[in-house]
Amino acid sequence: MTPRLVLFRRLALAGVLLALVVVVLGAWVRLSAAGLGCPDWPGCYGHLTAGSAAENVDAVNQAFPHRPFEYHKAIKEMVHRYFASGLGMLILVLAGLAIANRKDPRQPLALPIALVALVIFQGLLGMWTVTLLLKPLIVVLHLVGGLTTLSLLAWLAMHTPEPAARPQPANAGLRKLAGVGLAVLALQIMLGGWTSSNYAALACPDFPTCQNSYWPDMDMKDAFVLWRGLGIDYEGGVLNHPARVAIHFVHRLGAIAAAVILGVLSVLAWRRGTTPAVRTAGVVLGLVLIAQLILGPIMVMRALPLSLATAHNAVAALLLLATVRMNRLLR
Fold first, then answer.
1. Residue 204: left if φ>0, alpha if ψ -120 to 50, beta else—which one?
2. 47: which strand partners?
């Protein structure tokens, strides 16, 4: 590879690491109830930093009487914004490098430019997350946007060998299964975001049962209403208990489906992969999947401690990266 292309891939890899940090920080902020730690955007209580707001706390509380200033929440929210802004700047640099190196046939161009558009939309979703008072649909879209950014950066950063002259038939079935696995995992991640944003993570505090039943009373009709109008403060959730149970239970069913498909993909890639890279990717996918399947029930049975809940989100991001890696290798 040329020096410019090497630099591009290294910066893309740095973007993957930074995006992973941003995703985990976002989960930590949301799970620690700091999503409205700064009720305005892009500043914090009319100031550039949480520290400046703290120095003028009396004036801040007069300006925002509906949401008194809490420094420990504000600093979490602002740290997340700083890292997200840094990621946005890095993506702009990647796009600039791609345009400058566009004459190299090995240089991706469309994807870096698409990432710029995506990160701008992510900024808008971040603003709407705050100004629309943690509306679940916006929170889920913000999560999906962040993980899509992570996945696309990973796709750019992953170096693969030159393609063979002819496709390898042994990988055709795996390629289809990997695509299905990625789609099912994406749906499951969205269900996880819906569970978290509707404060339904503890609606089923027991495992493997839910409310001491294998099929509890649920309100499916109210559980998946995507839009409930404007002006509603969703901090703490607004749904009744049966609706939260329904969300949590569907998320568990999704976990079973995702585990089966990704588990089969992992085993088949390990046993039938036509290259060492595919076989290794199968092992990695399986190990991350096992870690997530262990972490999820423990998190529920221990009443959602912040450390385990944040780790659950982090491992979900790693599982997504492992699945993206599998798809990249098979294509």
1. beta
2. 44
- Residue 236's identity, in one-letter code, is G
d(CA 165, CA 155): 22
Please report the pLDDT score of residue 295 as a whole number: 96
Residue 77 appears among annotated catalytic residues: yes
Q: Is 12 exposed, middle or buried (0-12, 13-18, 19+ CB in 10 A)?
A: buried
Q: What is the predicted pLDDT for the residue at 331?
A: 84
Please provide residue 106's backbone torsions phi and psi, each rounded to the nearest 5 degrees: -90, 0
Distance between CA atoms of residues 124 and 110, nearest Å = 22
CA nearest neighbour of 211 among 255, 238, 244: 244
Tell me the two tokens of residue 204.
């089923």
First to last CA, the chain: 20
pLDDT tens figures, 38-60: 999 999 999 999 999 999 999 99
Peptide bond into 208 cis (omega under 30): yes
To the nearest 10°, the Cα dihedral for 262, 268, 273, 276?
Answer: 70
Q: Which of 55, 77, 162, 235 is catalytic?
A: 77
Q: Note the pLDDT tens digit of each residue in 95-145.
A: 999 999 999 999 999 999 999 999 999 999 999 999 999 999 999 999 999
Among residues 15, 158, 131, 186, the alpha carbon closest in space to that of 84 is found at 15
- What per-residue confidence (pLDDT) applies to 234? 93
Alpha-carbon span 184 to 112, nearest angstrom: 25
The candidate with the shortest Cα–Cα distance to 111, out of 146, 143, 144, 153, is: 153
- Residue 155: name the closest of 120, 111, 96 by CA: 111
Q: 47: helix, coil or strand?
A: strand
Evaluate whether 175 touches 331 at the Cβ level (below 8 Å). yes
Q: Is the pTM of this model over 0.90?
A: yes
